[in-house]
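Quick illustration, no need to memorize.
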Amino acid sequence: MKHHDSEPLTVPVDLLDDLAIARLAGQRAGALIAEKWRSGVRVRFKGPIDPVTEADLAAERVITDLIRRRFPRDRIVAEEGGIDDGQGSGRSWFVDPLDGTTNFSHGLPHFCVSIACADADGVRVGVIVEPTRGWVFDAVRGGGARLDGAPLSVSAAERLERAVLATGFPYDRHGAPDNNSHRFAHLLRAAQGLRRLGSAALDLAFVAAGWLDGYWERRLNSWDLAAGALLVREAGGVISDHQGRDWRVDAGEIVAANPGLHPPLLAALAESDALFESRPDGVTRGDS
């Protein structure tokens, strides 16, 4: 884990309550998920390869009930329960109760709870809880990023050949023209290492911690990215969409890295897309 030299920054007063609720909800949901993971998992499928478990549903209820009781006017956007528009406070909560459900359902200990609160200026607070290890990542806008209270900083690797990267693939990858496989193949040859770990939120937390040097993925949801994006930014990293534009919580995609690595990572992704679009079979890139 990379650390700042200074002491952890003080959390701005107006974010203390948000952070406390997000941490409490994440830890309660994480405890529930860990218990169900140890006792056995029952799985059903939302799509051909897109699982959901009773742990996803139960954890989401724990989180949304806590948020709704404390912030009754806030909007809640949750993976399993959809959108609850609240009463027009101008604030939104983005909840992924179990990011990495495929790992969870196979007994693989790599999954997390992801919770974020955003307003008109972007993400305010982000919390990611990894239940099997008891890790609590948190970040507040203007207040830094931490793991279990210790401040985080992104890595210093500035060359792709010295970087370990991560990415993921969409659930409809078997039929989608743009399934990220061409980018994966291109970066596999350019980077020191490439990982597919199965949890977008944890990939971003690991970039914030300096354990991964960069991460990219497309065709994701706000609840996958909101908390992790704030972690990376508050740990000194750069986040954008695939065109290098400012990242938004509704972007549906992200490129995250330390400041020195972000430009060459963007360039390599653009090169992979250009090569894909010029394939002789005439297949063009597109989100379907």
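The chain has a mean pLDDT of 89.
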